[in-house]
Structures are given as C-alpha cells and as structure tokens.
Amino acid sequence: MAAQKLTKARLIQILVLLAVLITAFVWRTITYKEASPVGEVSVVCQKESGECFEDASKRKIEIRLIQHDDKGGNQYQLQVPLNFDVSQVTLLSPAESRQKTLITLFVTKHFKTGDFFLPEDSSTSDGWRVRIESNDTVYILKF
Where are the transmembrane segments (predicted)? Predict the structure, then answer.
C-alpha cells in the first residue's frame, strides 16, 4: 500500500478517534463496580435428626440431610424446601479438587429431594461436604 501524505483532515480524524477511545476508557474505569460476592454460609447437619444449623449463629435452617442407616450408612437424602431457589447442588470430596459429583434434585409434594451416596471405601463422612448454590447464597453443608 502506498504511503499517503498526512493531511490536516486526516490528523483531526485520528485525534478525534483517539479522544473518543480515551474518554470511553476513563468513563468505564470511573463507573466500574465490582460484582458483589456471593455470600457463603457454613452449615452443620446432625446425622441423627437430619436437622441443619448455621455454623456461626446456630440458627436452624429448612434444609435437611438424612442418613439412611438401613442402606449401609453411606447413603443420604438431601431435602430442600420447594420455595428454595437452587441452581446447583454438588457433593465435594475431602480433597475437593479430586472429586465433585452433581446431585440431581427431584420435586416431591413437600420438598426438592436428592439422593447421593459416599463411596464404599470412605469409612466416615469426615471432610465430605454438600455445596448448594442459590441465587445469592452458597450453603456448605458439613455432616
């Protein structure tokens, strides 16, 4: 492509375009707002009763985690209220990066329920957690 002479009109066009780009960058930088982080709530569930409590405030929440002793003790049922908006439920292994299992919830008459089991080689449930993601909060269930 042949080189062209830089005219006053072309120089003004380049400077105006540069000014628009700088203005857009500065405007976006000034008006930038970080996304609010999702609140994470630690929850402790009792194996005997299935009741769950917030770890910090000890306030009872409507989620239940029931252990089925009659099926070897490694099978659980998660019950979430129908009005609870859930986007994803995941079973996290003690070494979180190694094993993540999605738990499918089914709608029943009174709850959304999901069954899951721990692998047979896990003698205890120590370290296993259930992560429930809703719109504005993430619940981490320890059991």
Answer: 12-30
Q: Which class for 135: exposed (0-12), middle (13-18), buried (19 or more C-beta within 10 A)? A: exposed
Task: Supply the pTM of this predicted model.
Answer: 0.66
List 91's β-bridge partners, or say none. Answer: 101, 130
Highest mean pLDDT among 15-19, 57-61, 90-94: 15-19
Spans of all domains in the chain: 39-142
What residue type is assigned to position 15 of the chain?
Answer: L
Looking at the chain, list the stretches that DSSP marks H as alpha helix, in order from N- to C-terminal side. 8-31
Residues whose CB falls within 8 Å of the CB of residue 50, separated by 6 or more in sequence, listed in order:
64, 65, 66, 67, 79
Is the separation of the CB atoms in 140 and 94 below 8 Å?
A: no
